[in-house]
Amino acid sequence: MKLAIGTKNPAKVHAVMDTLIREPLEFISIDAPSGVSAQPFSEEETLEGAINRAKFALSEAGSNIAVGLEGGVCETPNGIMLCNWGALTDHFGGVWIASGAKIPLPSNVERKLKEGYELGVIMSELMQDPHIRHKEGAVGVFTSGMLTRKEMFSHIVRLLYGQYQFDRPSYSH
């Protein structure tokens, strides 16, 4: 069975591949547009980006299933928080969704986001590493490495694929 991954970002690609390594799947990574702003600023927009990536990858790759992953931020009564969403689609039109844990962002990062800066740019400047989003990401930095971006998305992939297997057992084996 062929699974398309709607991104070329190494953290996201490895989250899918490493999580599902034991499954009988052929993986294809597709550069899929999110169709949302460069910095999603709500749960809804972040989820929409994940669904768009999955649907695009499924269509482009001609695969059986596809996964789209999207990171964003959302405003809450406790400040601006990281949020992450994933979507799994299949060639029968099914869509499964899942989100990851949220953590509040430091006030200096929150301030820059409100000024219109993208989190990836803020993190690159803060950590003096232009590739931070492809490695541990903001979640890795703000949890002192206890949880990386790949691990965050891996958790979401487990939720997605588990739902898919539950709903469509004949497709997953």
TrEMBL record:
InterPro entries for this protein: ITPase-like_fam, Non_canon_purine_NTPase, NTPase/PRRC1, YjjX_NTPase
Key words, A-Z: Hydrolase, Magnesium, Manganese, Metal-binding, Nucleotide metabolism, Nucleotide-binding
E.C. number(s) listed in UniProt: 3.6.1.73
EC class of the enzyme, as a word: hydrolase
GO molecular function: ITPase activity; metal ion binding; nucleotide binding
Assembly: Homodimer.
Domain called Non-canonical purine NTP phosphatase/PRRC1: residue spans: 6-157
Family as reported in the entry's similarity comment: Belongs to the YjjX NTPase family.
Note on cofactor: Binds 1 divalent metal cation per subunit; can use either Mg(2+) or Mn(2+).
Keyword Transit peptide included in the entry's annotation: no
Domain of life: Bacteria
Catalysed transformations (reactions): XTP + H2O = XDP + phosphate + H(+); ITP + H2O = IDP + phosphate + H(+)
BP term (GO), one: nucleotide metabolic process
HAMAP family named among the record's database cross-references: Non_canon_purine_NTPase_YjjX
Protein name per its UniProtKB record: Probable inosine/xanthosine triphosphatase
Described function: Phosphatase that hydrolyzes non-canonical purine nucleotides such as XTP and ITP to their respective diphosphate derivatives. Probably excludes non-canonical purines from DNA/RNA precursor pool, thus preventing their incorporation into DNA/RNA and avoiding chromosomal lesions.
Naturally occurring in which organism (per UniProt): Alkalihalophilus marmarensis DSM 21297
